[in-house]
Amino acid sequence: MKVLLIGYGSIGRRHDEVLSSFAKINETHIVTKQTLADRVTFSALENVGNIQSYDYFLIASETKKHYEQLCWLNEQVSGKKIFCEKPLFEKHYDLPPMNNQIYIGYVLRFHPILQKMKSLLDGQEVLTANIACGSYLPSWRTNIDYRDSYSAKKAEGGGVLLDLSHELDYAAWLVGSLQEVKSYQAKVSDLEIDSDDLVSLVGKTDQKAIINLVMDYFSPSAHRLIRINTNTFTLEADLIKNELIQTHVNGEKDVFAFQRLQRNDMFQAMHHEILFNEQKNFVCTLGQGLSIMQTINTIQEQNNE
């Protein structure tokens, strides 16, 4: 199996590391302006020869480049598998018909806690979901000044709404797609960035669940918390502490234990499902990714972004 990896920043290198562990992948070529010893590289996507010879394409470039690169690939190849990092785009676009299988990199769907929650919620009527995700942007990447990162730059597709759209995806995956939303998106902290560092929203899903979601870039105390209420139980998840508690209406509690994930476990599971599993149980499809983009677009329009 032959792979073309587009983009070789931190996330591109991570995908490269993961794919190198699959015995069925014989070679991975890379589109990057970097000079990489002992690797086949191309300075631009248009310079890749014999594009049809690749079996799997990964778009891991800056978000603002995704749309152009995906459309270009779709014109050049057909019947292939194309993976695109999240978020799909930096804003809403009307896509032409796709000639390939497109998958989006919402890797948290492969977190054991979220998969357990998905199973427990099957057949349940969800009443409310409260989600909070916060971290401190300057501590994200130790090898780069946060002010120089794309996350800090609105024009490059940075900002908490796009960076932390994982939360929008797994919320929709667990309790339904947002049909109504009221949102606040802004830069409120003293971080030296021009992108948004806070998103707060309340919404109603197509399954009638009410969602309250807050995401930020400025919390020194990192957290990723989920609380979901049904008519029969409450689920409380802490994705950083790796904890899940189910509290039943009679007061009884079930505490689920999970082994601490290794760095690449979720990425390996995601790529394995795309490449080798005929039944796609968890991976985000193009349609689902576009639905998240519609939610992002609604939030951007409400806040004149």
General description of the model:
- This protein is α/β, with parallel strands linked by helices and 305 residues long.
- It folds into two domains: 2-104, Rossmann fold (3-Layer(aba) Sandwich), CATH 3.40.50; 108-259, Dihydrodipicolinate Reductase, domain 2, CATH 3.30.360.10.
- 24% of the residues lie in helices and 30% in strands.
- It has helices at 10-19, 66-76, 112-121, 160-163, 166-175, 265-276, 286-302; strands spanning 2-6, 27-31, 41-42, 56-59, 81-84, 101-104, 126-136, 178-186, 198-205, 210-216, 218-230, 233-238, 243-248, 253-257, 284-285.
- The strands form two sheets. The chain has an eight-stranded mixed beta sheet with strand order 8-9-10-7-11-12-13-14.
- The longest helix is centred in the C-terminal third of the chain and has 17 residues, at 286-302.
- It is globular.
- InterPro entries: Gfo/Idh/MocA-like_OxRdtase_N, Gfo/Idh/MocA_Oxidoreductases, GFO_IDH_MocA-like_dom, NAD(P)-bd_dom_sf.
- Residues 127-223 form the GFO/IDH/MocA-like oxidoreductase domain.
- GO terms for molecular function: nucleotide binding.
- This is Oxidoreductase family protein.
